[in-house]
Specification:
The complex is a heterodimer of chains A (about 120) and B (about 110). Chain A is an all-beta fold and about 120 residues long. Helices cover about 0% and strands about 50% of the residues of chain A. In chain A, the strands form two sheets. In chain A, strands 2, 4, 5, 6, 9, 10 and 11 form a seven-stranded mixed β-sheet that branches. The radius of gyration of chain A is 13 Å and the shape is globular. Chain A starts with a strand and ends with a strand. Chain B has about 110 residues and is mainly β. Chain B has no helices and eleven strands. Chain B has strands at about 5, 10-15, 20-25, 30-40, 45-50, 55-60, 60-65, 70-75, 85-90, 100-105, 105-110. In chain B, strands 2, 4, 5, 9, 10 and 11 form a six-stranded mixed β-sheet that branches. The chains are: A mainly beta (about 120), B mainly beta (about 110). The interface of A and B includes residues 101, 105, 106 and 109 of A.
Amino acid sequence: DTGVSQNPRHKITKRGQNVTFRCDPISEHNRLYWYRQTLGQGPEFLTYFQNEAQLEKSRLLSDRFSAERPKGSFSTLEIQRTEQGDSAMYLCASSLAGQAHYEQYFGPGTRLTVT
Amino acid sequence: GESVGLHLPTLSVQEGDNSIINCAYSNSASDYFIWYKQESGKGPQFIIDIRSNMDKRQGQRVTVLLNKTVKHLSLQIAATQPGDSAVYFCAEKGSGGSYIPTFGRGTSLIVHP
């Protein structure tokens, strides 16, 4: 399977704990995006990397959230001191520079439940 | 503020019928509109886009219509199949210097065999 992969697929954590998600984009894609999606809503943009540079961050990305893409390949999204409001599906997507940003390929997502 | 939204949350159709999913937008400065399909347990999948200087664009079994006068676009699916059952999102190409798409609320399409 050469698509975008995300791990874990599901994560249940207690409020106050830290969690980290991983995204492996399509290998030749140099752009990588993180989104959050709640039930019935469209994905909400969180942040975007081109290679290892984090070029854009949404206001939704509070100081408890941090994303990295150290070598321009896989990316991690960490949420510190999780809150119940963080429960959502976290989607990763990738695309090629030179294509429109909206021509993204999405992964299956990581579903986070904060209890 | 600017928004992209859908008229109906759920649309039920019979297999073989044509489906029409509608979307209203408010940002007249948007220059691209995009439709995505999201199947259960998967991320959204790009279906088709339309530039604001076009009224109609056709793909494989899908047609998108854009009416800039009333700020409305629609996705028409011909001969709907059970595999078309999914949530459909319209999105606009980001404005204000960002080109990241802004998604509206989804419409769930249910195709009955």
